[in-house]
Amino acid sequence: MARTWPWQRVANSARHNQQTLRHSPLAEISGALGDLGTLLPLMAALALQGSVSLSSTLVFSGLFNIATGLWFGIPLPVQPMKAIAAAAIAEGASLRDTVAAGALVSAAVLLLAVTGLLRRLADVVPVPVVKGIQLGAGLSLVISAGSGSLLGNLGWFEHPSVFDNRLWALAAFIGLVLTQRMAPSSTPSGHAGGPLFLPYALVVFVVGLVISIVVSALHAHLPHFHIWHPHIVLPHWLDSHAWAMAIAQLPLTTLNSVVAVSALAEELFTPSLLSSLSSSSFTPATSVTAFGCSVGAMNLIGCWFGAMPVCHGAGGLAVQYRFGARSGASVVLLGLVKLLLGLFLGETLLDLLRIFPRSLLGVLVLAAGLELASAGASLNTYSHGGNDNTEEGGSYTSIQKRERWTVMLMTAGCLLAFKNDAVGFVAGLVCHGAYRLADYLEARRSNRNRLRRPGHGESRALLS
Predict the structure, then answer these.
(1) Which domain holds residue 429?
(2) Less Cβ crowding at N or C end of the chain, within 10 Å?
(3) Which spans are transmembrane here (predicted)?
(4) Each residue's pLDDT tens digit, 40-51
């Protein structure tokens, strides 16, 4: 097989991005905005308390969006490291502690990637466990959408304002339900006779942005021109809080941001889909090694400038795909916008982020969770081992299907119960191992019974 050089991969990816964007521009733009429900609230909360630099976060996450879009050629998200973000918000962590935690996680993931241990982990982890991680992460997003920071504390009319309440959330939810069949198909939109497509995420974001600008104008808090002045931040490498946050984040990053993303990318971006989107021969890099190196490089660069710790995520990939994105063009466009905002507006955007309606963000987070959780539906129908299984589940028997569902639900259930990816992962492995042990013992017992039947050597009775 001929070797593909880095510049050739970037050229092929750029050609694929360009052709997809030309055929379906609205879908790519809508898909780019799909993951903002996860990004905006965490980024705003961290920036408002000084745990990250907003301008540096926008600049570097924008650069990373552009780089990953050009390299991978798929709508790979650049989103906050959620465990670190949650701990930093709860404890009021300093800027140096937060970036140190992100860098420590990235160094570990990068080491696992370059040594090949990540690839071996992905090879040995059973598919039902990976699906359980995806299902659990999706349901976690659904639960977080109803939390107090988003939809939980909303009133019906004037809480927190007439522009942000349960009526707006209800309207956004009804819009989400009504547009379920208006999602883009596997073929480029715009073709004659193609399905109706409504860029739901784009519409919701524009409505929220208009509301934020109007409210900001009424209070004289509109963003203004402010050039980014980068400054070096020395992370607190030895601080105990940084290490505690990093240890909590490492299983989530390894499993959901690398292993689960790799599995989901291979499932979503099949050769038939890619060939229908562009005439160029393009194969995305979906290996766990590539994703691990990407996560490691991003934070080991951005941490020195106070940028928010970021990673990839199966939830972000699922929701960007759900809202229309089919190529890296979507995240390249998003990255360009973030880069310009960080360079020329920076910290002046804080008030605008603070005002953005939680009712609309909460519904976007809900949509992201539902889309990721739905990945579990293909557990017994999708071909994971290279064999093209039939719609009824291929070679899986009814007992095997039930056992695979049990392993997936055990993984997801323990993840949700203990709010820890590592606990869910171990529980799923134990459940899977128990079934395999039962198969082994059953096979041995069947073999012994077969040997003891008449006509099988010394096991035959002497007096018969």
Answers:
(1) 398-452
(2) N
(3) 58-78, 99-121, 133-155, 167-184, 196-222, 285-307, 328-349
(4) 878 887 888 889
